[in-house]
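Chapter review. Work through the record for tRNA threonylcarbamoyladenosine biosynthesis protein TsaE before attempting the end-of-chapter questions.
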Amino acid sequence: MKIHLVDTQATMNLGIVLGQTLTAGTVILLAGDLGAGKTTLVQGLGKGLGIIEPIVSPTFTLINEYTEGRIPLYHLDLYRLDPQEVVNLNLESYWEGIEVIPGIVAIEWSERMPYKPSSYINVLLTYGDEGSRQAEITPFNCTINEYIATI
Ligand SMILES: Nc1ncnc2c1ncn2[C@@H]1O[C@H](COP(=O)(O)OP(=O)(O)OP(=O)(O)O)[C@@H](O)[C@H]1O
Ligand SMILES: [Mg+2]
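Structure tokens for tRNA threonylcarbamoyladenosine biosynthesis protein TsaE:
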């Protein structure tokens, strides 16, 4: 499914709908060039989940956890890591809910992952005309709410 995102607010809105509808245990793998809008989408996700705390890029902290919303949000950014470092993070504990409360796991620079969960939603953000963006959403072994397409 391809969605045209005309401006920053449109990217936010897509995140908001995802945050309102996705269930605990969902993994969102975000891919796309520098500045494509990955963090913006996660900021929307946070809003949709009811998180008031500002969502900031975890480029240096690696993982930011937000627990004040409907369900927890785990926001990761793998930009600075190589595949072996990613393996060492034991990311599966997040999506398997081992020692963490199940929530939504959103991973920026998921291209860096040498392995993927058994089910996830892939969101590829690309640059479009006149500074806009496009999101290509592909669910793997899971479903997404159809009204996302109406945004
Ligand atoms: N649909 C859109 N149209 C135009 N600008 C957008 C759109 N979505 C987001 N932006 C803008 O793009 C810029 C970069 O966004 P953002 O930080 O979310 O990208 P990113 O993919 O997380 O970048 P990085 O690769 O550095 O992590 C921001 O200024 C944001 O407002
Ligand atoms: Mg980012």
